[in-house]
Design a protein that fits this description.
single chain, mainly beta, Jelly Rolls, 2 domains, six-stranded antiparallel sheet, five-stranded antiparallel sheet
């Protein structure tokens, strides 16, 4: 689903999170229990073996009993079992029960069940650690089938809150009737400011880059304002057979991109990961019985709390990275199983001009120079 800044709970205003969702098949059975208890006047027994868990399919266990019983006639029992192999996935950290009075081993941990996700099973395209799957965009090629050299590609979408704060017809005022040539090049087909494929000195000595600029936006904390942003669709493809709503990027460490701003006064840009547990499904697809996201709560601020990281960009090209493990949403939401739907860059300023280039997933060490598009590809992401 395409996001608008106003409904994000943004990166400015925190609120209650919509719970992450996993299928029951994602949860393993109980882990092996703790070891035998210690005798009187001795240390408690060794903890149980860690249950192994496949991060996508059914696991064989979740947790061990951890040894921490004290010595002495009334030493404490083994501590509660900790969650095995799930340290990166909040909401699944159910502990084993505590041991009894220095006599019993720690209980086996048990996973906590979360609801199913649209990205379960065939709903996710699993990425491999290859240059083709790591590539996101470099803006070097005109989108396949397009004659518009300024068109960033079908995977990109942009929005801006113009005129009165909130959604209204003024949001399309960028493309007023009669705009042509250079003036029109900054507007998309709906008359909104767009991210443009721009010729010039791209990052890492490349020839093109993506530029998003405009003026006159309403931004939070103005009541009702949803600001401006661009998003790149990396996983949502509901027209595929079977439909796909996410990529599983768990083979990668994070995302690398190059960026700069046109004016140091507007240097702040916030990168967001759109994840299914925080994304609200498209109403038409819900009515059709095929929702494309998981967060259906009607509670205020329950959704759109995407994992994010704030950057202060420079006026010259620099490389930036985001490690999946280090980002959380305003209410603690994290990336689970590497599942992503879109990448977003948001500007919390009335006037904005930021550029992006050489965007890719990375494993371990970020790419040092230009990223390579897949052979034979037009170099753009999935359709939005």
């Amino acid at each position: 689903m395409r996001m608008s800044y106003g409904f994000l709970g943004l990166f400015v205003i925190g609120s209650a999170a919509c719970a992450g969702r996993l299928s029951l098949g994602d949860l393993g059975g109980s882990g092996t229990g703790g070891g035998a208890s210690g005798s009187f006047n001795s240390a408690s027994g060794a903890g149980g073996r860690v249950g192994s868990v496949d991060p996508v399919t059914a696991g064989t266990g979740n947790s061990p009993g951890a040894t921490s019983g004290g010595k002495g006639n009334s030493g404490g029992g083994n501590s509660a079992g900790v969650n095995g192999d799930w340290t990166d996935y909040p909401g699944l950290a159910a502990s084993g029960g505590a041991g009894n009075a220095g006599r019993d081993s720690g209980g086996a941990g048990a996973g906590s069940a979360l609801g199913p996700s649209v990205c379960d099973g065939a709903g996710s395209r699993i990425l491999t650690n290859t240059p083709a799957d790591a590539f996101i965009d470099d803006f070097e090629k005109v989108a396949m089938g397009s004659t518009d050299t300024t068109f960033a590609g079908p995977g990109w979408y942009s929005y801006s809150d113009l005129g009165p704060a909130g959604a209204d017809p003024s949001d399309s005022s960028c493309g007023a009737t009669g705009l042509v040539g250079a003036a029109r090049s900054v507007c998309n087909e709906n008359g909104m400011f767009k991210i443009s494929r721009t010729a010039g000195m791209g990052a890492a000595a490349t020839a093109f880059f993506g530029e998003y600029e405009g003026t006159g936006a309403n931004v939070p904390p103005t009541p009702g304002a949803f600001g401006v942003g661009v998003e790149m669709n990396v996983g949502d493809n509901p027209t595929a057979l079977p439909p796909q709503y996410c990529v599983d990027a768990s083979v990668f460490t994070g995302v690398s991109f190059w960026a700069k701003v046109g004016n140091a006064a507007n240097a702040t840009v916030v990168a967001n990961f759109v994840i299914p547990s925080q994304n609200v499904p498209t109403p038409a697809l819900v009515e059709a019985g095929a929702p494309d996201a998981d967060c259906t709560s009607v509670a205020a601020g329950a959704c759109y709390n995407f994992p994010q990281k704030t950057f202060a960009l420079s006026t010259v090209w620099k490389q930036y990275t985001i490690n999946f493990a280090e980002v959380t949403g305003a209410t603690g939401a994290k990336i689970v199983h590497g599942r992503l739907q879109q990448l977003m860059w948001l500007a919390p300023t009335t006037n904005w001009d930021f550029s992006l280039d050489e965007i890719a997933f990375y494993n371990g060490t970020p790419p040092a120079g230009p990223v390579a598009p897949p052979t034979g590809s037009g170099g753009s992401g999935g359709s939005n």
